[in-house]
Design brief:
Radius of gyration of chain A: 19 Å
Largest sheet of chain B: 6 strands, mixed
Strand content of chain B: 25-35%
Strand content of chain A: under 5%
Order of helices and strands of chain B: EEEHEHEHHHEHEHEEHEHEEHEH
Bound molecules: adenosine-5'-triphosphate, magnesium ion
Distance between the termini of chain A: 26 Å
Structural class of chain B: alpha/beta
Order of helices and strands of chain A: HHHHHHHHHHH
Helix content of chain A: over 70%
Largest sheet of chain A: none
Oligomer: heterodimer
Shape of chain A: elongated
Number of helices of chain A: 11
Radius of gyration of chain B: 24 Å
Helix content of chain B: 25-40%
Number of strands of chain B: 13
Number of helices of chain B: 11
Number of strands of chain A: 0
Largest interface: A-B, 28 and 36 residues
C-alpha cells in the first residue's frame, strides 16, 4: 500500500496541474479577501467601511474566503483521475496494480491528503491577507476559536471534495465531459433543484459541502438550512463512495484499449 | 538481479468488440529462454491478445495465463512481467525520469532505478525532458525502459521496433537476445516477419484473430530445407542422376519448373553440381533459393481483410 501511495503522490508532483490549481485556489482566496475588505462595503452603499468591518460576523466571512475556491479542488481530483484515461497512463498504472478498485482507493486517499493541504494553504492565504488588509483599519477582532473552526472546515471540506473529484473522474472518464459536467452541476443544476425542492438542498453534494464549510459563512446559504458539520462530511463521503463504487462496477471495468 | 521467466499460455482465447471478432479461439504458448515473435497483419488481434494477457482487456472466453496464473492474480505483477504496449501512454508534461519513477515507486524500488533503465535504453541524456516532446523512437525507448524497471522475467513488447532507427533495431535485437539467454521469456509482436526474423527463435502467426501457425522459426522455414534452381538442356538425365542411389542421399523433391528447369529440395548446390559432373550433364544455372520467409508469411496470413466480422 505504501509504495502505491508514493506512486500516486509522484504522479501529482511530476505534473503541473497540482501547482496551477493550488495557485488558483490561493489567488481566488486572495481576491475574495480583497473584495470583502475593500469593495463589498462600498458596493453595499456603506459610506464608511467601519460599520461592516466592526461587525464580527463580517470579519468571520472575510477569513471564510478560505472556503471560496472549493471548486478548484473538485476539478483537481477530476483532472487527475480522467488524465489517466486521457493520456493512457492508466495502462502502466494497471500493469503494476491490476486490481482496479485498489487504484481508485489509493488515488482517493492521496487526494484526501492533497485536498487537506490545499485547504490549509487556502486558510493560510485568507488569514494572512485578512490580517494584512485589516491592519490599520478599525475592525472587529479576529476570533481565534472561529478561525480554528474555519481552518477545520476548509481542511476537511477540501479533502473530501478532492476525493469526490477522483470518484467523479472514475465514473466519467472523458476529461472535458467530467469537468464541464461537474461545473454545470455545482453552479447550475444543484441550485435549480434546490429552488424547486427546498428540503433536498442540504442533502446534495454542494449543500453537504456548505455544511462542512459552515463556519466560513455566518449568514449561511441564503438562509436555507444546512446539516451539522459531521453529517455534512458523512453525506459528502457517502457521495464519493457511491460514485466510486458505481465507477468500480461500470466504467472501471471496461477494457483498456 | 535477474529473474528467470515463466511460460505464457493462451487457451482458447476469444475477444469480441461488438461485431468485431478481434481474437477467435486462439491457443499457443511461449517458452522462457527464447524470443518468440508474435506475428500478424494489421488488425489481426495481436494487441488485443497481449492486452488480454495483461488483464487490460477482459476475454469474451478462454484465458491467458502467466506461469499458470491470470495476470490479476499475480502477487507483484510489475516484478514478474514487463510490458510495453504502445508509445502513447505518457503524460505529455511528465519527464521521462518522472514517468519511470511513478513506476519504480509503485514497485517499491529505489529512485535510482529510473536512471538505470534510462541509461540502458539510451535515453540518459533526455531523462529530464518531457515525454510530450519525444520523437516516436524516443517514446519506444521510454516504453521499453518502463517495461524493464522491475527487471521482470517476462517481457511482452508490442511492436517495439516501430520507429527505431537501424542502429536502434540492432541494439534492440541484441538486448532481447541477451535477455532470452538469461532465461527470460520474451514475446515480441510485429506485423513484418523480416523485422524480427533475425531476433526470434519461435514464431506464433495469427491472421484475423486465429492461429495460423506456431513453432520454431526453423520449422517455419521448412526445417532449413535448401531449395536450388537448376537449368540444364538435359533435364531428364539430370533427374535420373540426382535420384541414382549411387550418388548418395536422394533429394527430398525434384520438381520440373520449366522445359529446361528444375527445383531441387534437400540437396546443396555443390551436391547437385558434383552429381551432374559425374553424369556428364551440362548445367547452365545452379542457384540456391533464399528462403523467403516474408512471402511465406504473406501467403499464410493472406486470408482476407483485417478484423474479420462474422
Ligand atoms: N476497443 C476496441 N473497440 C472496437 N474494436 C476494437 C477495439 N480494439 C481493437 N478492436 C478491433 O479488433 C481487431 C484487432 O485489433 P488489434 O489492435 O488487436 O490488432 P493488431 O494485430 O494489434 O493490429 P496492428 O498491427 O495494426 O497493431 C481490429 O479489427 C480492431 O479494429
Ligand atoms: Mg497492435
Amino acid at each position: 500500500m505504501i509504495p502505491l501511495l508514493r506512486s500516486e503522490l509522484r504522479k501529482v508532483t511530476t505534473t503541473k496541474v497540482l501547482f496551477f490549481l493550488t495557485l488558483a485556489v490561493a489567488f481566488f482566496t486572495a481576491l475574495n479577501v480583497f473584495l470583502l475588505v475593500y469593495l463589498t462595503p462600498r458596493a453595499m452603499g456603506v459610506e464608511n467601511n467601519d460599520e461592516l468591518l466592526m461587525n464580527p460576523d463580517y470579519v468571520t466571512n472575510i477569513i471564510g474566503a478560505a472556503g471560496s475556491s472549493s471548486i478548484f479542488v473538485l476539478i483537481l481530483g477530476i483532472v487527475a483521475m480522467t488524465g489517466e484515461f486521457r493520456h493512457m497512463t492508466i495502462t502502466s498504472t494497471l500493469l503494476v496494480t491490476p486490481r482496479r478498485s485498489r487504484v481508485l482507493i489509493t488515488k482517493g486517499i492521496i487526494f484526501l491528503i492533497i485536498g487537506a493541504v490545499i485547504g490549509l494553504i487556502a486558510f493560510a492565504t485568507a488569514i494572512a491577507l485578512a490580517t494584512l488588509t485589516l491592519s490599520g483599519k478599525a475592525h472587529a477582532p479576529i476570533d481565534t476559536d472561529i478561525a480554528l473552526q474555519i481552518l477545520g472546515g476548509v481542511v476537511l471540506g477540501f479533502a473530501i471534495y478532492a476525493f469526490v473529484g477522483v470518484a467523479v473522474g472514475a465514473l466519467i472518464r472523458n476529461q472535458v465531459a467530467a469537468v464541464v459536467g461537474a461545473l454545470i452541476w455545482v453552479l447550475i443544476l444543484e441550485a435549480l433543484l434546490t429552488v424547486f425542492v427546498d428540503w433536498i438542498g442540504k442533502w446534495l453534494p454542494g449543500g453537504a459541502l456548505d455544511a462542512v464549510l459552515q463556519a466560513t459563512n455566518v449568514s449561511g446559504r441564503g438562509g436555507s438550512e444546512v446539516l451539522s458539520i459531521g453529517a455534512g462530511a458523512a453525506v459528502l463521503i457517502t457521495y464519493a463512495v457511491i460514485l466510486g463504487a458505481l465507477a468500480s462496477a461500470t466504467t472501471m471495468r471496461r477494457d483498456i484499449t | 538481479m535477474s529473474t528467470i521467466g515463466q511460460a505464457l499460455t493462451v487457451e482458447h482465447l476469444s475477444k469480441r468488440f461488438g461485431k468485431v471478432h478481434a481474437v477467435q479461439d486462439l491457443s499457443f504458448s511461449v517458452e522462457p529462454g527464447r524470443v518468440t515473435g508474435f506475428l500478424g497483419p494489421n488488425g489481426s488481434g495481436k494487441t488485443t491478445t497481449l492486452r488480454c494477457m495483461l488483464g487490460l482487456v477482459r476475454p469474451t472466453s478462454g484465458a491467458a495465463r502467466i506461469g499458470g496464473h491470470v495476470y490479476r492474480d499475480l502477487d507483484h505483477p510489475g516484478m514478474i512481467v514487463g510490458a510495453a504496449l504502445e508509445a502513447s501512454g505518457f503524460h505529455p508534461g511528465r519527464t521521462a525520469r518522472g514517468h519511470l519513477r511513478v513506476i519504480s515507486d509503485a514497485l517499491g524500488l529505489p529512485k535510482s532505478r529510473a536512471d538505470e533503465v534510462l541509461e540502458l535504453v539510451g535515453l540518459a541524456d533526455s531523462a529530464g525532458r518531457k515525454a510530450g516532446g519525444f520523437s516516436l523512437g524516443m517514446r519506444q525507448r521510454l516504453s521499453l525502459a518502463a517495461a524493464l524497471v522491475g527487471d521482470p522475467g517476462i517481457l511482452i513488447l508490442d511492436e517495439p521496433a516501430n520507429g527505431l532507427d537501424p542502429e536502434g533495431i540492432a541494439w534492440l535485437r541484441g538486448l532481447l537476445r541477451g535477455l532470452a539467454r538469461e532465461g527470460k521469456t520474451v514475446l515480441v509482436s510485429s506485423h513484418v516477419l523480416s523485422e524480427v526474423q533475425q531476433t526470434v527463435d519461435d514464431v506464433v502467426i495469427i491472421s484475423r484473430g486465429s492461429l495460423v501457425q506456431s513453432g520454431t522459426l526453423a520449422d517455419l522455414a521448412g526445417n532449413g530445407a535448401i531449395r536450388v534452381r537448376v537449368r540444364t538442356p538435359r533435364r531428364e538425365s539430370l533427374v535420373a542422376a540426382l535420384q541414382a542411389s549411387s550418388g548418395g542421399n536422394p533429394p527430398t523433391s525434384v520438381d520440373p519448373t520449366g522445359p529446361d528447369e528444375l527445383l531441387v529440395t534437400g540437396l546443396t548446390p555443390s551436391d547437385i553440381g558434383r552429381r551432374a559432373f559425374l553424369a556428364g550433364v551440362e548445367l547452365h544455372e545452379l542457384a540456391q533459393q533464399t528462403n523467403d520467409l516474408e512471402s511465406l508469411f504473406l501467403e499464410l496470413t493472406a486470408t482476407g481483410t483485417p478484423g474479420g466480422t462474422a
